[in-house]
Amino acid sequence: MNSRQTSLRSIALLEAAKGLLVLTAALALFRHLSAHWQTNVEALIAHFHLNPASKYPRILLGLSTKLTEPRVLALAFGALFYSTIRLLEAYGLWKNKSWALVLGMASAGLYLPVEILEMIDHFSWLAVGVFCSNLVIITILWCHHRGTA
After folding, report:
1. Is residue 23 packed enough to be buried (19+ CB in 10 Å), middle (13-18) or exposed (0-12)?
2. Secondary structure of 97-133 in the HEC alphabet?
C-alpha cells in the first residue's frame, strides 16, 4: 500500500469511527425516546458526585428540562443522517472514490468557520488541534483530488 492509500484510509477510519459513534448515540436516543430525561440527568449528576449548581451540571439540567419526545426524535434522526454521511464518506475514501474526496473536503470545510469562532471566543489548545486537523484533512484530500499526492 502506498502513502496515498494510507492517508486516505486513515481519514476513512477516522470518519467511520465518528459515524459509528454518532450512530450508537442515535440508536440510544431511539431506544430511550420517551425516557424522563431530567430524572436521568439528576441521577447521573448524583452518581458522579457533581455539584448540581456548578456550571456544566446546571447547563445539562437546563437542557434536560427542554427535551420533549419530538425534540429527542429530531435529534435521533439528525444523528442518523450525520452518521450515514460519515459512513458513506468513509466507504468512498476507502475505495478511493473522487466523490468522497469532494464530500470530505466539504464536510471538513463546513466546520472551519465555527472552529475559528470557537478559538476566538474560548481559546484552547484542543480547539486549535481540531482546527489544524481539519485543515490537514482538507489539504490531503485536495492534493489527492488534484492528483498531486
Report:
1. middle
2. CHHHHHHHHHHHHHHHHHHHHHHHHCCCHHHHHHHHH
Residue given cell 469532494 in the structure block: 102
> How many whole angstroms separate alpha carbon 70 and alpha carbon 4?
44
Show contacts of 129-138: CB within 8 Å, 24+ apart.
Answer: 134/108, 134/109, 137/11, 137/14, 137/104, 137/108, 138/104, 138/105, 138/108, 138/109
Banded pLDDT at 148 (limits 50, 70, 90): low
Output the CA torsion sign for 31, 35, 39, 41: positive
- The model's pLDDT over 103-120, given as tens digits with 9 standing for 90+, comes to 999 999 999 999 999 999
Measured CA distances, 113 to 7, 49, 128, 144 (Å): 25, 36, 13, 23
* Per-residue pLDDT tens digits for 42-69: 998 999 999 988 888 999 899 888 888 8
Give this prediction's pTM: 0.81
